[in-house]
Amino acid sequence: MEKRPTLRFLAGREDAGSTPDPAAPKQFNEISSKLIIPFMGQSYLIGCQKCDFKSKEIKTGVGFLFGNINDIVYVLKGTDKKKVQILNHQKQIHTHYSRGYSLYQCSKCHSLENKCHLTLYNQQGDLIFQTESYCRSCQKEREYMPEDTDNETIPDLCCPKCHQQDLRVLLGILWD
Ligand SMILES: [Zn+2]
Ligand SMILES: [Zn+2]
Asked: How far is the CA of 3 from the centre of ligand 1 (A)?
């Protein structure tokens, strides 16, 4: 085998770590996260700048996970899961559309819910199922809060605790 100059990996060299290796893991991570994030989604936390509110981990993103109705059923929870399982079993589902994990906020009490969005249509094109986020204390539907991924923020989101619009999105945790 031909010997290549791989001197930078030789043990005992004082300057071994001083030259950035173009193939080093850092660059690999940058490339792979760019490729993976649009498919796998991201998770993030929300922190309030006015009070001590900090959210639980919030999942977001659409991807190949949501390409197949069985995969979507897998991530659904509670009554959503039961309803969709029945519709699927009855072969009523003709087309589906999912934004993946989405964030919902009650416009009255500002409570948050993070759940998997899904809409289902039958063969006639009628809506047969839609994910809803229901606020029990206000007895109303929470609204879907679209993310602004370019600016890494969620416009119009209010702090569930102090109700001010001064939230910070803390991005960067990859989930699977
Ligand atoms: Zn509410
Ligand atoms: Zn707050």
From this structure: 68
* Ligand 2 midpoint to CA 111 (Å): 12
**Cα 158 to Cα 164: distance, rounded to the nearest angstrom:** 5
> pTM of this prediction?
0.69
* Annotated domain spans of the chain: 26-173
* Cα 161 to averaged position of ligand 2 atoms, centre (Å): 5
Ligand minimally distant from the alpha carbon of residue 165: 2
Alpha-carbon distance of 160 to 55, in angstroms, equals 9
Q: Which of 96, 174, 104, 84 is nearest to 144 (CA)?
A: 104
pLDDT of the residue at 6: 45
